[in-house]
Amino acid sequence: VGAYGYDARRLQIRTITMRWLAILGLAFVLSSCSVQAEPLRDGDIIFHTSRSSQSAAIQRATHSRYSHMGMILHRDGKPYVYEAIATVRYTPLAKWIARGDGGRYVVKRWRDADAKLDAAATQRLRTAVLRYDGRPYDLAFAWSDARIYCSELVWKAYREALGIEIGATQRLADFDLDDPVVKAKLAERYGKKIPLDETVISPQAMFDSALLITVAP
Rounded CA gap, 213 and 5, in Å? Predict the structure, then answer.
């Protein structure tokens, strides 16, 4: 009995030791990743899956995992997401990430940023996007500037400031409008007068653009 108890004790100690080594190893890996992570820059574009009431309709209509996006801008050295939500506004990065489904997100960057997004170009981009500050969110996804939605905000800022179009615009009719969830949302927003020829830029079209590269996570 004594020998059996001794062997069991050794096995328990070995198991506990291996668990702690695994925990410490994971902590080291996470710490290393954090140190080596690409610093976010002004102009980076961040995507996540919104938990808003319209998210499912956007995902199904565009066949996309992502339904919301914004632009990274720093204030006093801290990263924020400049986004169109209830109004166009700054949101602290950590708060924005936490607001998404499961805290998952992806950050992308203009492929030519290292060569072309210098201080002057970055300032042009900041000026272009900030001119929409305070504009109300556009529930109808119209192409005018009176109201504005998330992908429209970022797309128009890049085109105005840098002359590039990140992602191809589409007509509303180009999306999958036969899904029941999408149909219900369209009826809620437009009734029977759905503007099928309205120009739209979707988060998915921007996410898939060859002009962007993934930098985080």
Answer: 58
> Which residues does 99 contact at the CB level (< 8 Å), separation at least 6?
48, 50, 51, 91
Name the phi and psi angles at 48, rounded to 5.
-155, 175
Task: Write down the pLDDT at residue 174.
Answer: 97
Measured distance CA(158)–CA(88) in Å, rounded: 16
Residue 9 tokens read as 């004790």
Exposed, middle or buried by CB within 10 Å (0-12, 13-18, 19+), for 69?
buried
pLDDT in tens, 6-31: 455 565 656 555 565 444 444 443 44
- Token code pair at residue 212: 């962007």
Q: Could you tell me the CA-to-CA distances from 102 to 38, 50, 96, 97 in Å, in that order?
A: 22, 10, 12, 9
Mean pLDDT of the chain: 89
- In the chain, which residues have pLDDT < 70? 1-37
For position 30, what pLDDT does the model report?
Answer: 43
Backbone Cα Rg of the chain: 23
Question: How far is residue 82's CA from residue 72's CA, in Å, rounded to a whole number?
Answer: 6
Secondary structure E strands in the chain: 45-48, 68-75, 78-84, 88-92, 106-110, 170-171, 199-200, 212-216
pLDDT of residue 88: 98
pTM confidence score: 0.82
- Is the separation of the CB atoms in 157 and 165 below 8 Å? no
**Alpha-carbon distances of 131 from 62, 82, 160, rounded to whole Å:** 28, 12, 11
